[in-house]
Specification:
The chain has 20 helices and 15 strands. With 507 residues, it is α/β, with parallel strands linked by helices. It has a domain of 184 residues: Rossmann fold (3-Layer(aba) Sandwich), CATH 3.40.50. Bound molecules: iron/sulfur cluster.
Length: 507
């Protein structure tokens, strides 16, 4: 209920529409998930910081999905066609399934070719789009290949000037902007991905505080963008190159702001452990009376003082991501972590009595064998033995994700493992580890296969997405057959060196 949600929010921006460019910021999933996504907060704040813009949020809730009811903007309760621009922010490939239903429920044709200036301009951005926009490109007038901060000013100027013109003229104007990909007007030229040079120029924090979301008790602050490591499967390290940090002064200023709303700060980034002033930052935050959590940590990279500060700061869970059980496989994925690092980290975490350690592993990595699964079990049990020896209260849980080849990564041409192999290896892990009292959470191999298809697919996948009538595996598979789409090629085939890449035009 929009009214209920708004009444529990702090920081909502409600603007008068008069004379302003109205933009609907669409998160194609629920409010609960969307409001834990720092990207949504950042874009909401960035767009509303412009005097001539009014930006309102739109979510796609279970009720909308089940009844195909048109989503309304949270702030004004207006339907999507009332807006001049509809901007999708998409983080995960599986959210592609919501694009067509949202547009159709709003009475807007799903394909860009069927729309003209009578309809809102429909654009999108997000990490998976920066990597490979092809599978959803037929639905959008323009796609933003890069970070929003440097792109938004140019986009807004072009849109403000061109909204009254013919749609074709506006789209032609958009093709001239750095990082903007206009599928209907693209003639194969390179599009350069855009990035913010200096994070301090763009504060990225919680814009709206609400208890109705997973990280609702925290004020989120972006510490770093990108990752200096180059794990060969990882999208973050390639899409957000180069690694950038905020200055210590900037972070302390943002923390001071955040502490007005929440006692607990969430320090966000793919690689916060390598932040050069981490120790100083945490000490200063403690002095300011803050509690804090870090979104991801390479425990082997942080000092005992940092770990102790984190535990004092209320960290309940520490995540370790060996990704593979054997040294050989970890080296082949360039994880940069050896077994000793994992065991030493476990000793430190157990000694501090951190309530939970999550171990992240992938299965189906290139070159993986059955022995590598045995190695995951062996390493996990070694970790458990350390906890038992220290008589620590620490509890281990395993998170298992199938390897999915991602566009733009070193492994982009590698195949995803066959489903039966993944399921068999998962069953072995579940059986042998649950017998030792270790709980395991795994991503579905079937849905990971869909994700793999959408990660590497070209524009033909759009027809499949457009003919999925409800989000289920059977509906997807029926649509694949109906559209004569070769899903196997995109998920499970090793691509040769000269394979033409659907995202090959992005530099
Ligand atoms: S350390 Fe994590 S974020 Fe960095 S490249 Fe490796 S998997 Fe990606």
């Amino acid at each position: 209920m929009p009214g209920d949600l708004l009444s529990r929010e702090e920081g909502t921006i409600v603007k008068d529409w008069g004379g302003r460019l109205p933009i609907a910021l669409v998160y194609p999933n629920s409010y609960y998930l969307g409001m834990s996504n720092l990207g949504i907060h950042a874009i909401y704040k960035l767009l509303n910081s412009r005097k001539n813009v009014v930006c309102e949020r739109v979510f796609w809730e279970k009720e909308n999905r089940e009844k195909y009811s048109p989503p309304l903007a949270l702030e004004s309760k207006r339907p999507l066609p009332d807006f001049t621009v509809i901007a999708f922010s998409i983080s995960y490939e599986l959210d592609y399934f919501a694009i067509v239903p949202i547009l159709r429920a709003a009475g807007i044709p799903a394909y860009a070719r069927d729309r003209d200036e009578r309809y809102p301009l429909i654009i999108a951005g997000g990490p998976c789009i920066m990597a490979n926009p092809a599978p959803i490109s037929p639905f959008f007038d323009a796609l933003c290949l890069g970070e929003a901060e440097p792109m938004v000013p140019h986009l807004l100027t072009a849109i403000s000037q061109g909204m009254t013109a013919r749609r074709d003229d506006l789209l032609k104007a958009l093709t001239a902007l750095p990082g903007v990909y206009v599928p209907t007007h693209h003639s194969g030229e390179t599009v350069a991905r855009q990035r913010a040079e200096n994070l301090d120029d763009f504060p990225v924090t919680s814009a709206i505080l609400t208890p109705e979301t997973e990280l609702g008790e925290m004020y989120l602050i972006e510490v770093a963008r990108g990752c200096k490591w180059s794990c060969r499967f990882c999208l973050v390290s390639t899409a957000f190159k180069p690694m950038r940090y905020r200055s210590l002064d900037n972070l302390l200023m943002l923390a001071g702001e955040g502490l007005r709303y929440r006692k607990r700060l969430g320090l966000m980034g793919a690689d916060v452990s390598d932040y050069p002033h981490l120790e100083k930052l945490l000490i200063r935050l403690e002095e300011m009376g803050a509690q804090f959590s870090i979104s991801s940590l390479r425990v082997n990279r942080v000092s005992d003082r940092v770990l102790e500060a984190l535990v004092r700061g209320g960290a309940e869970t520490i995540t370790l991501a060996p990704e593979a059980g054997s040294e050989r496989l970890r080296q082949s994925i360039k994880k940069g972590v050896c077994e000793d690092d994992v065991l030493r980290s476990m000793e430190r975490v157990a000694a501090l009595g951190v309530p939970q350690v999550k171990l992240y592993f992938m299965i189906g990595l290139p070159q993986e064998t059955d022995e590598d699964i045995d190695e995951i079990i062996r390493l996990t049990l070694k970790c458990k033995a350390i906890i038992e020896k220290k008589k620590s209260r620490t509890r281990i849980t395993l998170n298992i994700a199938p390897f999915v080849p991602k566009a733009g990564t070193f492994f982009q041409k590698k195949p995803m493992a066959p489903l039966d192999v993944l399921k068999q290896r998962l069953a072995i892990l579940e059986k042998r580890l649950s017998a030792k009292g270790i709980s395991l959470k795994a991503e579905s191999p079937d849905w990971s296969q869909v994700q793999a298809v959408l990660s590497r697919a070209d524009a033909k996948a759009a027809d499949v997405l457009a003919s999925v009538d409800r989000v289920s595996l059977s509906a997807w598979r029926q649509a694949v057959v109906k559209s004569r789409f070769d899903a196997d090629f995109y998920a499970h085939k090793e691509w040769c060196q000269n394979q033409r890449l659907p995202w090959g035009f992005i530099s």
